[in-house]
Amino acid sequence: VIGIGSSAVVRRGRDLRDGVRVAVKLFHPGGSLQDRRQQRREMDALSRLDHPGLVGLRDGGTESGRPFVVTDLVEGPTLAERIGRAPLPPAEVRRIGAQLADALAHVHQGG
């Protein structure tokens, strides 16, 4: 397990087709209709988008009644962890901010 949230558990896995390490987001059972709609929107959005600042969608579906999403695995510290260690230099903040803004603009352009 690499993460647990209010709607899902994310596990580290391996794609059996090509051996690549992946992240498997397995949604909690018993979600509401609204939860299922949100899960579908997430999968639809990821399937339409291709950007270096976004994880790529590899697969998704339902197994034993539980929806799942398989994405590229991104290893390393989170932004919160990096900020928590020490203040970031202004140049690093500008670089990260520009990358985030670029990825967000791409998502908005994709609907």
Q: How many DSSP-defined strands?
A: 5
Spatial order of the strands in the main sheet? 1-2-3-5-4
Proportion in helices: 25-40%
Uncertain parts: none
Main sheet: strands, sense, barrel: 5 strands, antiparallel
Number of helices: 3
Structural class: alpha+beta
Describe the 3D structure:
This protein has 111 residues and is α+β, with helices and mostly antiparallel strands. It is built from three helices and five strands. The chain has a five-stranded antiparallel β-sheet, covered by helices on one side. β2 (8-14) and β3 form a beta hairpin. The two termini are 31 Å apart.
List the helices and strands and how they pair.
Layout: E1 3-4, E2 8-14, E3 21-27, H1 33-48, E4 57-63, E5 66-72, H2 79-85, H3 90-109
Antiparallel strand pairs: 1-2, 2-3, 3-5, 4-5
Brief account:
It contains three helices and five strands; from the N terminus they run βββαββαα. The protein has 111 residues and is of the alpha+beta class.
Which descriptors apply to this entry?
27% strand, single chain, five-stranded antiparallel sheet, 111 residues, alpha+beta, globular, 5 strands
